Amino acid sequence: MEKTVVSLRHVHKTIKKHAIIKDLSFEVREGEVYGFLGPNGSGKTTTIRMMTGLISMTSGDIEICGHSIRTEREKALEHIGAIVENPELYEYMTGMQNLKHFANMAATTIEPVRIQEIIKLVELQDAIHKKVKTYSLGMKQRLGIAQALLHRPKVLILDEPTNGLDPAGIRQLRDYLQYLAKEEGIAVLVSSHLLSEIELMCDRVVIIQNGQFVREYALKEQQDEILTVMIEVDRPDDALHFVEGKIEKNMIVVRSSREHIPHLVKKLVMQDILIYGVTVKNKSLEEEFLLLTEGSTMQ
Ligand SMILES: Nc1ncnc2c1ncn2[C@@H]1O[C@H](COP(=O)(O)OP(=O)(O)OP(=O)(O)O)[C@@H](O)[C@H]1O
């Protein structure tokens, strides 16, 4: 079991007599990308602001690497790198000038070699001497992540990092966050109001609504879990002679364990049925999230 690096315990936040966060508890482990999912206005930013020490909590506690934000604030915050809302970048300066500026402002000494290392890590070598105003949104985000990682934090917190990114940018971000988590052992927390994006990026996800914990899911399928598998084929009617399922448009929808999926595909191929795509859905998460957000302001 990986080490817990972020721990929220019974956190409450009341603003002007309104209970915004109610008894919220969850944990983020070393080396995982953890999704923080909830409809607009459910309290994600408020929680992240408490985790990063920007606002206080009314009761409960948040521990980062074993240090309480309440009683050991500086020690706790030392381990956090975060982008809350937009990254703070100077557009008229180059990427390198931005990084050097932030390195100078940091509480700990940041060696030039660390700056070089981080530029490589976020793959900005080619553009680092160009002015930030010429950067794409994805590049600005990578520079923001570089800034947040300069001081080697154990936890990286990103509030709605996919906002405004195109699908290619989202894919790139996912690859990077997975790299940071798996190769560098960083605990990454990403908030979003879009299940589709969280599903692509995260190992586990917590859903909140109205400031309250709803449920936590592991997104990596368990070996024995029964999944919904959608197979796009040229002849759906024929396909159903060989596997058990139902037809939806040009897809056949089959319930199967992960282990059994290759056998399904093999059976169809042996009957000369052409397969154009296989999609695996974690149906329970999708259903729960849809139910939860019905009638809300979700996109
Ligand atoms: N300073 C404040 N004063 C009054 N209400 C606030 C304040 N900050 C947040 N709220 C309210 O708390 C609730 C949660 O807001 P928050 O911004 O944390 O949600 P969110 O999940 O991040 O939403 P979004 O996805 O839209 O950013 C909202 O109803 C918001 O209006």
From TrEMBL:
Pfam family, one: ABC_tran
Residue ranges occupied by any ABC transporter domain in the UniProt entry: 6-235
Gene Ontology MF annotations: ATP binding
Membership in a protein family: Belongs to the ABC transporter superfamily.
Name of this protein: ABC transporter ATP-binding protein
Highest taxon above the source species: Bacteria
Entries under InterPro entries matching the protein: AAA+_ATPase, ABC_transporter-like_ATP-bd, ABC_transporter-like_CS, P-loop_NTPase
Keywords: ATP-binding, Nucleotide-binding, Transport
